[in-house]
Amino acid sequence: TGYWSRDFVPKYYLTVASVGYTHVFTKYFSALAGYDRYLYHVEDASFIPYQNTLSVTPVFDIKKASLSINYSFYFGDKSVHRISTMLGGRIEFNNDFGYKRIALLPMAPMLFGNETFYETETWIPRTRIQALRYYRDYGTIYPTFTTEIKEFGVMNYAFSLPISLSTKNLNLLLTYCYTIPKALPSESLTFSESTYLMASASYTLRLRK
User: What does pTM read for this prediction?
Assistant: First the structure.
């Protein structure tokens, strides 16, 4: 999967290599498990703490609607947990272009997650006696303390409009997405609302029984 956005430099900034497995339990319920490896096309990727993801996703399908709940474990230099819920639909079209199926798949995902923040505070003595007390207790007259803060909450809202083009074994997916990042209480939000385009291709290997 490749990612392009006008908000990044370079605009084509990320490639994701994925492998996964899907098991269909009934016509209404299936589950997916997968692994993703993130390859960033930026000058300095050392500040990106997560390069891998393990995920599991149960999916419920009722006629033209679907509901999925995805749990992902991101890891690399750091590790975090993410939970995303997505309500989507499926509108299929007749076509004369040689595809087995053309479908429009509007989706409204919401992302929850955890993050760890660190707050630093330095005590400034107001009197000589207080300065001597700080030096006696902490070895310096300006003691510094770091507090670890762990938070969980909504991190992103989005609306996406994918179009799927399918043949017998090949699927092409073109997606337009509008995303609204949300800051956690102790987070300084660095991204604003944005749009991006995504294109992906997948080929299904059918194993003989």
Answer: 0.68
